[in-house]
């Protein structure tokens, strides 16, 4: 079963030794153990009490996620923008919606969304259930009036038994559509990466450059101030000094000027598969990302307090990128489901 297979990828972590560049001092064993503990993978996927997991609900959510009939044009599905082959994004700098309209932000990945505290780049949805309906209804995205969606799905005979199995006696309703999609999205979990194997004790799982890069990530470059924990995100919002007029979180929370140009910290799992980067897709490579943080961020009143100045050598930059690349797991084969008729 899909959900069971994805859930099985959540493994506990062990430990390993850390090496530094030849001739340099090794990190203390206590520091390595501290880092291992901070990046320990959770044992299970969290499901809210208001929407507990059932296999019938997950199956329905998977089908809905891939069905273009959830859009007003019958051409766009959730998976059109959240494609498994692109790290559950779309591989484009900026998203495209209804009528191929170019949107102002990049499609965020739904990978590891089960651990998210809020959703969208500006955090305007508090739950995955709220997030699931947002793009469906948005005129510039899937352009499907929500008040018409239950009847539209009810007119497809194959959906009736699926909803009955997932929500007995409740029929086809918006809250069920949202709950099923959210249940499926919570099962979209990153696989076991080389970094995970290293943390579990396989010292040969990542190269020495990546081990050095881990220390740069946590110390010299201050990346772990925001990209923390097993999913490498603080689930908060920061202005990281990118140019542009997008007000970010402050556009949603009017009057909070400290949140102007602040966007949600993305997790870094499977990051090598998710280029280009940032909310506006403006940075094409991981090397460009490190260059931005070191040299190119704009100085302005709303710049995050976590954006501390630093300077790396060419070797340290290369080591940092080598570490980031170890956070990507092997590709997972993911077949689109047969859709009901």
UniProtKB/TrEMBL annotation:
Signal peptide: none annotated. The keyword Membrane does not apply. InterPro entries: Cyt_c-like_dom, Cyt_c-like_dom_sf, Cytochrome_c_Peroxidase/MauG, Di-haem_cyt_c_peroxidsae, MauG/Cytc_peroxidase. One of its GO terms (molecular function) is peroxidase activity. It comes from the Bacteria. The keyword Signal applies. Its main location: periplasm. Gene3D superfamilies: Cytochrome c-like domain. Keywords: Heme, Iron, Metal-binding, Oxidoreductase, Periplasm, Peroxidase, Signal. Residues 208-328 form the Cytochrome c domain. It is found in: Periplasm. This is Cytochrome c peroxidase.
